């Protein structure tokens, strides 16, 4: 990325390819597959537009993960609940560095919020269930599901840079 | 499965960028604060007897130090937010704010138990001048800092807005304090707190829309 900031197009093209692969794994099972490609694309565009915000004296992955988390929450806020979604089981979290992946992963971010909020978000925002279906599945009232989603999203948005 | 995005075209569009430098932003804000202080001194004059013993009045030194530390801590947090990274902790500004809140709390207690009537300690006319100058300079600082932060990637626009308002208000009040002739805790606890609270509220309400990306 430091080379890209200096205008090295070849290095940048190579980085974009690597990031595309990494992001697809990063978002795996954390967003409906019909949204996945849009989300990866949006994140790459954000990376491009905000490349001046990368500090070349620091590690690249935590910066990319912060951009990726921000875009992910932005996408979760949009409603997908009426669309049919199937989780793509072929995609798995990046296994190349499990320790780093665990610290910066989306699972970690969801782990920062109470279990009930994470469950409501997972069912409605990621798996695409309706509020009524999520209510039935969790035993929470419909209004509680909505409140849990709202609070959970707010808490996660505030914790994007937390490990 | 490739995305619909043409990575070759994106790479071809690449132009060199200068990485955001928080130190430059902080230096720029320091210069603007100094300019604000000069503006206050030129238009209102130094505080009474600035160059004699009152310049070393403990309250003047304490309030200036507190405003400087609060402004620096929140400015440091705001500039750091331009360059996000998972694993970054920014809690310094919260602790500094908590420490600074001792002033209005102590002022409230002093107002309640003091012998002098509170009305005689507030000097509303001067208080309004304090608000006007502190908030006015603070808003200029906020605008400049917001413009700079728009180039960055703050992941929590609401928090960034709050911290920008807090930093700008603290530094704006610091600039005005060069003129402020009062050393009374009650006066400072009310008007200075109101000025900083106002810019912080403005930052929280209006800045997030401008820096969201």
Automatic annotation (TrEMBL), chain B:
Superkingdom of source: Bacteria
Transmembrane stretches, start-end: 22-46, 58-78, 98-118, 130-148, 160-178, 185-207
UniProt KW Transmembrane helix keyword: yes
Pfam families referenced in this protein's UniProt entry, alphabetically: NrsF
UniProt entry keywords in alphabetical sequence: Membrane, Transmembrane, Transmembrane helix
Keyword Transmembrane helix: yes
UniProt xrefs under InterPro entries: NrsF
Protein name per UniProt: DUF1109 domain-containing protein
